[in-house]
């Protein structure tokens, strides 16, 4: 009995990750009743983003140009290529202000259970980029989750086979971290990978 | 450094209730990377819904017409008017198939802390509807939360002052409920409101 445009809106909201039927309903009512301005803005932003955003030919991240401003920046160190899972990871590394090389964004991770293998992740594109002339080292900065680790391992093997120098972010106790509140696995890893001082 | 259309999309997603900066980012990447079809559909659904949906002149729920099909249905019992907070509540009552009267949807509840008083909730509109000729009884079906109860109490006083017969959904142990797993407050209420058999 509810109007079809409302049903369609509720159903459409379910494409958002983690949004089930109840949340979708709540969101629809909220938008229509309390935030029509926000709803209109979201509608326009979605349609505009789909229209103008594409993947950078160099780093595979989202951009509005053929090559994103970061990859086109001659002041970045083109001998270093840092591989991350998502643009959010890239943003975190940028925020450290301690890396001036370039990036390659996988836009995901190997996840066999979800049907994401080397082909779906387009690892061929990464390999082509990483074996370009001028790349001296590839830094793997995928997450330290099971899937991130598996991804790093696979990429490392593929690159090593092509004679590319590969490194991985170090693991250990977080800066400012107390051992008492650090998980056992991390402490074990920090012991194995201890550094001479 | 991220493209403005992506930033705008992420910012726009934050108009959804319960969506913070991290979720908005995750949603944007998901839509752009994994569900462009869903994103386009959502964009269109938002814009279309805003364009065609309005409040029914009779029940205040969302509709695409001046008066919604339910209110216009001559087979519904126009002597009964059931007051609910949201369209989702109306849908629940309809699913019981044990009510054939009409509805009035408040589109919210009194919530002084959020600045929603009788004026913001447009109780004048409800009063005008409830005092129309032909309405024999108003059934208050707001939630049994603090705010829902306060709303029912206020509406009941206003209607009683105008000589309208008012009732409230009964409270008690849920059908199929076991006392052992029912909260104390509900049991206490069920004792106070016990019915002669």
Total beta strands of chain A:
6
Seen as an oligomer or otherwise, the chain set is homodimer
Cα distance spanning the termini of chain A? 72 Å
Number of helices of chain A: 8
**Structural class, from helix and strand content of chain A?**
alpha/beta
Helix content of chain A: 40-55%
Question: What does the radius of gyration of chain A come to?
Answer: 21 Å
Beta-strand content estimate of chain A:
5-15%
Q: N-to-C SSE series of chain A?
A: HHHEEHEHEHEHEH
Strand order of the largest sheet of chain A: 4-3-5-6
What would the average pLDDT of chain A be, to the nearest integer? Answer: 91
Largest inter-chain interface?
A-B, 55 and 55 residues
Note the main sheet of chain A.
4 strands, parallel
pLDDT under 50 segments of chain A (min length 5)? none
Backbone shape of chain A: globular
Describe this structure in words.
In chain A, helix 1 packs across helix 2 (21-34) and helix 2 packs across helix 3. Chain A is globular, with a radius of gyration of 21 Å. A 4-stranded parallel sheet of chain A has the order 4-3-5-6. By secondary structure, chain A is α/β, with parallel strands linked by helices. In chain A, 44% of the residues lie in helices and 12% in strands. The longest helix of chain A is centred in the N-terminal third of the chain and has 17 residues, at 36-52. The interface between A and B is large, with 55 and 55 residues.
């Amino acid at each position: 009995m509810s109007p079809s445009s409302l049903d369609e809106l509720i159903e459409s909201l379910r494409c958002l990750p983690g949004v089930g039927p109840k949340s979708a309903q709540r969101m629809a009512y909220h938008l229509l009743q309390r935030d029509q301005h926000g709803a209109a803005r979201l509608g326009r932003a979605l349609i505009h983003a789909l229209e103008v955003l594409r993947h950078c030919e160099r780093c595979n991240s989202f951009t509005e140009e053929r090559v994103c401003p970061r990859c086109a920046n001659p002041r970045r160190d083109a001998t270093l290529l840092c591989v991350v899972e998502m643009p959010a990871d890239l943003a975190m590394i940028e925020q450290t202000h301690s890396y001036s090389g370039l990036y390659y964004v996988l836009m995901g991770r190997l996840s066999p259970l979800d049907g994401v293998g080397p082909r779906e992740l387009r690892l061929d594109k990464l390999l082509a980029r990483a074996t370009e002339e001028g790349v001296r080292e590839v830094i793997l900065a995928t997450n330290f989750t099971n899937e991130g680790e598996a991804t790093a391992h696979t990429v490392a093997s593929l690159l090593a086979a092509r004679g590319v120098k590969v490194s991985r972010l170090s693991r250990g106790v977080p800066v400012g971290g107390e051992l008492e509140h650090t998980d056992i696995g991390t402490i074990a890893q920090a012991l194995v990978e201890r550094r001479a001082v």
